Automatic annotation (TrEMBL):
The lineage of its organism: Bacteria, Bacillati, Actinomycetota, Actinomycetes, Micrococcales. Residues 15-58 form the HTH arsR-type domain. This is ArsR family transcriptional regulator. Gene3D superfamilies: Winged helix-like DNA-binding domain superfamily/Winged helix DNA-binding domain. It comes from Microbacterium resistens. It holds the Pfam family HTH_5. InterPro entries: ArsR-like_HTH, HTH_ArsR_DNA-bd_dom, WH-like_DNA-bd_sf, WH_DNA-bd_sf. Signal peptide: none annotated.
Length: 217
């Protein structure tokens, strides 16, 4: 393991990462589909999904059937969009904004120069990253977040692309849930696995050049 903190939160288990990747790639998903794709037992898949639901990253719904039979539970990614918003994620964002406001009052610092909405987005994103075992350092001028050393540095090389895509998708969901101009555009390519930089975007600005993108699935 790298010198960063322990991996925790929704991506502490690679099996859970695989499930979240599948749900982010196409929603909704059924238990049967996830079992077939991962070769995991249904009970194990349900346990992972419950953790993801409790974290605010997956939303369960009941299938609407037009024929006889028991409706299945469907699982979708929480993207922060109006029709894909998790109540857990909404509570987290609200709490992060309140704690951020309190901290700024105690330190007598103002909101970010990026504006109030962007400040709240950064509050929510930093809390999410810390909860996941990262030590984020925000560069507001460059619209970057440094996440080095990456707690996933010791992961298998073949797992890292999926890890990056899944976590980029989670960051995009957090920013969308908070509401505001900031977006998580990509994870920048790095020469060493322990190095990690997330490039943010500001809606309305032209795309920044020279960034090798790891797109969300």
């Amino acid at each position: 393991m790298a010198n960063g903190g322990p991996v925790c939160g929704p991506i502490s288990s690679y099996s859970r990462v695989r499930i979240l990747h599948l749900v982010q790639s196409r929603s909704p998903r059924t238990i049967g589909e996830l079992c077939a794709a991962t070769s995991l037992h249904a009970n194990t898949v349900r346990e992972h999904l419950q953790r993801l639901i409790e974290g605010g990253y997956v939303i369960p719904s009941t299938e609407r059937r037009t024929t006889r039979g028991r409706p299945r539970t469907l699982y979708s990614a929480a993207t922060g969009a109006p029709d894909a918003s998790s109540p857990v994620a909404r509570r987290k964002v609200s709490a992060a904004a309140q704690r951020g406001d309190l901290m700024r009052r105690l330190l007598r610092t103002g909101e970010s120069e990026l504006g109030r909405d962007a400040t709240y987005q950064l509050d929510a994103l930093v809390e999410h990253l810390e909860e996941s075992g990262f030590e984020p350092v925000v560069d507001e001028e460059g619209l970057r977040i440094e996440l080095s050393p990456c707690p996933h540095a010791a992961a298998r090389p073949e797992h890292r692309p999926v890890l990056c895509r899944v976590h980029l998708g989670l960051m995009q969901g957090v920013l969308a849930e908070a509401g505001g101009p900031l977006t998580a555009d990509c994870v920048r390519d790095a020469p060493r696995p322990q190095e990690c930089t997330v490039q943010l975007g500001y809606r309305g600005e032209e795309s920044r050049q020279g960034v090798a993108e790891v797109p969300a699935a």
